[in-house]
Automatic annotation (TrEMBL):
Belongs to the ABC transporter superfamily. The keyword Nucleotide-binding applies. The lineage of its organism: Bacteria, Thermotogati, Deinococcota, Deinococci, Deinococcales. Residues 4-232 form the ABC transporter domain. Gene3D superfamilies: P-loop containing nucleotide triphosphate hydrolases. The keyword Nucleotide-binding applies. This is ABC transporter domain-containing protein. SMART domains: AAA (SM00382). InterPro entries: AAA+_ATPase, ABC_transporter-like_ATP-bd, ABC_transporter-like_CS, P-loop_NTPase. Coiled coil: none annotated. PANTHER family: ABC TRANSPORTER, ATP-BINDING PROTEIN. Keywords: ATP-binding, Nucleotide-binding, Transport. It comes from Deinococcus knuensis.
Length: 235
């Protein structure tokens, strides 16, 4: 199964070095990513989603360098951004159709997939109601559903479960675990129980570099050697 290899990725915003040489592998399964506010998690996620161009470094998908030509990566990508939502006047069905078209998926295949996806996030009963009338947790679940359109081999999730109640959180965890049997999943979250329930391995970003999980806070030193993912035992 394909792996995303991230090599020495660097992103700078003016004087801020948001990513200072990130190296990691995303194989099949769930990779959990934690780190303090401002550590660079969303910057990393946006770069992997090919929305942010890296200043340096490489992205390799399935053995192919996609840094400059992101097409093959975009075709296999599902993405939940930290911010943003569906257009309020659209129903979830219409929004998923719209996203399917944006992803250039086959319209019939999308229509066939939508009911199962909405059921998977427990919105089957709200398929034809404008998203603008949804609660915060319901709107978040629409975004989770759109990320799964086309059965993506690479799923990157930036704090996807914020605002989900206990029952919906459990459903989300099950959905992610199920999907991760056939996809590389990167899950950014501050929610420990989501990591415990889903993550096969855990990474921590600190000051724009990957550090060991569980390490006490250290001032980010420019010469710190970035570490590649540590495996954590699954219960
Ligand atoms: N578009 C931008 N322009 C300027 N600076 C930015 C931009 N995006 C991020 N940064 C800076 O890059 C650093 C990393 O931000 P990022 O959003 O990646 O953090 P994060 O780990 O996702 O934090 P959080 O847990 O709060 O979501 C921060 O110092 C932030 O201020
Ligand atoms: Mg963020």
């Amino acid at each position: 199964m394909p792996t995303l290899e991230v090599r020495d990725l660097r992103v700078r915003f003016g004087r801020t070095e948001a990513l200072r040489g990130v190296t990691l592998d995303l194989p099949t399964g769930v990779t959990g990513l934690t780190g303090a506010n401002g550590a660079g998690k969303s910057t990393l996620i946006r770069t992997l989603a090919t929305l942010q161009r890296p200043g340096a470094g490489r992205l390799i998908w399935d053995g192919q360098d996609v840094t400059r030509r992101p097409g093959p990566l975009r075709r296999v990508l599902g993405y939940v951004p930290q911010e943003g939502g569906a257009y309020p006047h659209l129903t979830p069905t219409e929004f998923l159709q719209y996203m399917g078209a944006a992803k250039r998926l086959n319209a019939r295949a999308v229509d066939a997939q939508i009911p199962a996806l909405l059921d998977a996030v427990n919105l089957g009963g709200h398929a034809h109601r404008p998203v603008g009338t949804f609660s915060g947790g319901m709107a978040r679940r629409v975004l989770i559903a759109q990320a799964l359109l086309g059965d993506p081999r690479l799923l990157i999730l930036d704090e996807p479960s914020v605002g989900l109640d206990a029952g919906e959180r459990l459903r989300f965890q099950t959905l992610i675990r199920e999907h991760a049997r056939r996809a590389a999943v990167l899950l950014v979250t501050h929610i420990r129980e989501d990591l415990d329930a889903t993550a096969d391995r855990l990474l921590t970003l600190e000051g724009g570099v990957i550090v060991r999980p569980g390490q006490p806070h250290l001032a980010a030193a420019p010469d710190r050697t970035p570490l590649v993912g540590l495996e954590i035992a699954r219960a």
